[in-house]
Amino acid sequence: MPELPEVEVVRRSLQSFIKGLKIKKVSIFNRNLRYKISKNFSKTIKSHQIISIERKSKFLLIGLNNNKTILIHLGMTGKIFIINNYLKKIFKTSFYYENQLSSKHNHLIIHLSKSTKLIYNDVRKFGFIKLILTNQIKQNKHLILLGPEPLTQKFNEKYFKKKSLKIKKNLKNFLMDQKLVSGLGNIYVNEILHYSSINPLKISNRLKNHQIKKIIKNTKTILLRAIKLGGSSIRDFRGIEGQDGYFQQNFMVYNRDKENCKKEGCSGKIKKIYISNRSTFYCLKCQK
Question: Which of 8, 128, 179, 180 would bridge with 34, disulfide CB 3.0–4.6 Å?
Fold first, then answer.
């Protein structure tokens, strides 16, 4: 599933291609995604202009000039294709990248000005598209319970310490809990804990102050680096413009079971375990 860096890369790509364009027509081929696309979706957005492309956690928010926002969650296999007939190009974004656009799984097409189309394609249909009021975004049920984003100032040592003492979980599950910190997923949590030299099974209320500082610092550093590198190409994530994500070349532990630890001066091996049914990778020697 795309995590914060991948969704941010998609947001930036969408902004460069569709911001300012006008919606000419909407074609819906299948309303039955994770949640049904509303019957008034097409009528409500037709003839209106896209004025903003935002991201909240792992959600995309396409703002229109009629106080409506299109809320998109890509789920496991959701992808957005941008077709520009004038340039005769197809721009793709996908956590599970496909070289060919299979119309079989196209569920919605938004026809835009300047000979442009936005296509939502989703094989497993775990993603969803909803229409919400822009001035009520903060009250939306999908967004209201989200914790602070890790790249904001709200995600700081004071906040982390307060929550970690109150909610006693192993650190892997703590960082994966979207109500505590939003946007992190399995890949980046593995990497953050390795850079912080902390065992993913360590209970949150047993952290020392210097360990909390490490987690905060490494979370921000790793996410910013991943965004700069275009995300991670696990199952070949690519941005709208078709570029690979290169952060996977910097993985220290993720998907490296039984391999040598890359940390300088460490002679340990990477071990794979499962925490809450999620694959977890850590160094037996340097992560205490």
Answer: 128
CA distance 5 to 12: 11
Same domain, 203 and 99: no
> Residue 210: is it exposed, middle or buried by C-beta count within 10 angstroms (0-12/13-18/19+)?
exposed
The domain in which residue 276 lies consists of 157-230+249-283
Count of domains forming the chain = 2
User: Residues 122, 105: contact at Cβ < 8 Å?
Assistant: yes
Residues annotated as catalytic (active site), given as ranges:
2-3, 58, 278
Residues 19 and 101 in one domain: yes
Query: Are residues 172 and 273 part of one domain?
Result: yes
* Encoded tokens for 149: 């984003």
pTM, to two decimals: 0.88
Residues 197-221 have pLDDT tens digits of 999 999 999 999 999 999 999 999 9
